[in-house]
Each structure stands twice: as structure tokens, then as C-alpha cells.
Amino acid sequence: MTRQWIIAFVMSWIAVMLSGCTASLKAYPERSYDSKAELTAMELYLSSNAITNYMSANDSDRNNLTRRQWRDAVVNARIRAIDLHFNDFQQALFQEGVGIGIATDWATLALGGAGALYKSSAQTLSAISAAVVGGKASFDKNAYFDKSMPTLLAMMVAKQKEVLVRIRRGLRNDTDQYPLELALNDVDSYYNAGSIPGALMGVAQSAGETAEEADKQLKILFRGKATKEHEEMLRLCTSAIGGLTAADLDKAKDALKDLEPSTSVSQITFDKARQLLRDIVFNAEGEMIDKVYEAFKNVNFIHKGMLRLCNSAIDGLTAADLDKAKDALKDLEPNEPEPGTFPVAHQRLSDLVLYAEGEMIDKVYETFKDAKIIQ
User: Are 258 and 277 in contact (CB under 8 A)?
Assistant: First the structure.
């Protein structure tokens, strides 16, 4: 076996590893459906004509669907399309980020071993090895933000859930309250939430909101005179403000009219209204806390705060919290069988929060507190 043949063999094997390892490495099972065929089948609802058909006065232009039924079909189809592409996105991230790393590690070992066998070839092989390692380091460092991608993916999913809740609640209304145009804006938000820029914005926003809420809680503690009831009121008000969107502007204006009647709100922007409400909550003391709480309750912001705290608590649950989840489900779904696994319990709690309305929101929130799901 000649020295040249060994070197040629090693280099050929490395090329195969770097090009083929990611193809053979599978982190996901084979799909039970054809995503391309599914997208083709939904083309009717994905095309620009979907909006034109929605505006038509004739149901015949919408396959004999009412305007509301057509809106729901278009929105659901586009959400499904986004999910299909997002699944491909996740798999591509894994294959490129993890698969290449494994292939490169094996290639490095091969080059090092070959260099040890033939000292005269060591300099050449070591140089190639250094290039391979350097390429791997460059890829790992620059392509997907080192090892932060799992965190970003988790943020993407969490943010998509938040938007999905808004969409599902909107679809319960008729088209005069939640028209297709507004629904498609939310669908765009759903798409953006599943992107790397969207996740980075989510991380920054979450960090800022967490710090802001912590500052408010610290101020409550240092007041010394705040009762536990007032602490709970301020907690719910703070949580509600963190979950406000531009769609809540009118309600925010109504709350400001009660709390600061001297402030003109006719031309106020959403960002300004939210900031004013934050300042009011931050500075509230004594009887003013009761007044703020009632004003928020009158515009249904307290329920928004409860749901936000419940969703946050659910996101933080782990398999170790199965007993807590079971206790909560016993109270909320007494006629349903006890969940046998954590994923089942987690999904049932998520669905309860997603579809809760009115007094049921209060019940879910209190049950979560009793079960220590919300601390």
C-alpha cells in the first residue's frame, strides 16, 4: 500500500463524509403525509384570489361557503402552510447545524490518524485538518448563533402559540368583528413569530418585560404597606399590560378615561397608551390600586392578565409537574379520565386556557394557583 494511495483514500473518504453524513443522519421520523401535495391541495385558499372571493357578494364564488366559513378556511389553510414550511425549516437547521458537525469531527480524526501513519505526509494532512476544523468553527460560530438555536426555536414556538391564541379567539367572531383582512394580519404575525429575527425580538422583548415586571414587584415589596390582595391586583394588571396589542387600543383608551380623565386620548397611539397605563400601575398605591384594578376589569384586561400568567406557567411545566397538572385537571375536568402522561396533561391544560372565556378564566386561574402551577 503506497503512501499516495493512503492519502487519496483518506481524502476521498472525507469528501463522502462531509457530503453524505447529514443525509444519513435523521433526527426526525419519516412523515406520514406528502407536504407538497398538501400545499397543492390548499392552493385555492393560498392564492390572492382568496381575498377577492371573500369580498364577493355571491357564495357561489366561494364554493358555496358563507363569508365566515370562507374566512375560516383561508386562515386555517395558511396557518397549516406556515406550519409545513416551519417543520422543514426546523429539520434543515438540525441537518446543517448538527450533521455537519459530526461529519467534520470524523474527518478530523481521519486526517490526524493518517498523519500519524506517515510522518512525511503529516504536514500536508495536518494543514488540511486545520482547514476542516477552521471551517467547522466558522460555521458553528456564524451560521446559527453557536448553540443558541434551540433557545430561539423554543421562543419561535412560544410566540407562535401566543399569536395562534389571538387568531383562534378572533375566529369565534363574525366577519364584521374579525374580517379576513385583520385575520391575515395576524397570520403574518404568526409567520414572523416563526422566524429567527422574530425570535430574537421575542427574546429581547421578553427580557425587557421580565425586568420591568420584576421592578414593579420589587417596588410593591418595598412599599411595605401593600396587602397581599393589592399585590395580586398589581400582578394581574402588570401581566395584562405585557400582553396588550394594538387591537386593544380602544379598551386602553377607555381605561385611561377612567384613570386619567384630564388626559386627551382621542389621538393617542397604542404605544403611548400602553406606557401611560404602565406608569399608572407602577405608581399606584392604596385605594388607587383598587381603582386601577376595577378600570382594568371593566375593559376585560384582568382576564387577559390571568390568561397570560396561565400560559406562562404552562410553558414552564416539566414532567416533574405531572401531579400538579393532574390536580388541576381534576377540578377543571372532573368527568374526564386522569391523564396518564405529562404530554397529555400539558395539552389538556393548554386547551383549557386557550378556550376559556368569562367566569371560566377566573376558575382556571384560581385552580392553577391552588395547584401551585402559578406561584
Answer: no
Contact 282, 237 (CB under 8 A): no
Q: What is the pLDDT of residues 200-251, one digit of tens each?
A: 776 666 655 555 655 655 555 545 556 888 889 988 998 899 888 888 999 9
φ/ψ region of 264 (left if φ > 0, alpha if ψ in -120 to 50, else beta) reads: beta
8 A C-beta contact, residue 121 and residue 3 = yes
Give me the residue label for grid cell 397538572. Answer: 325
User: Each residue of 296-337: pLDDT tens digit?
Assistant: 999 999 999 999 999 888 888 888 889 999 999 999 999 999
Q: What is the DSSP string of 221-271?
A: HHHS---HHHHHHHHHHHHHHHT--GGGHHHHHHHHHHH-TTS--TT--HH
Task: Write down the residue that cell numbers 426546523 correspond to.
Answer: 90
233 and 305 Cβ atoms separated by less than 8 Å: no
| Annotated domain spans of the chain | 3-144, 146-208, 300-375
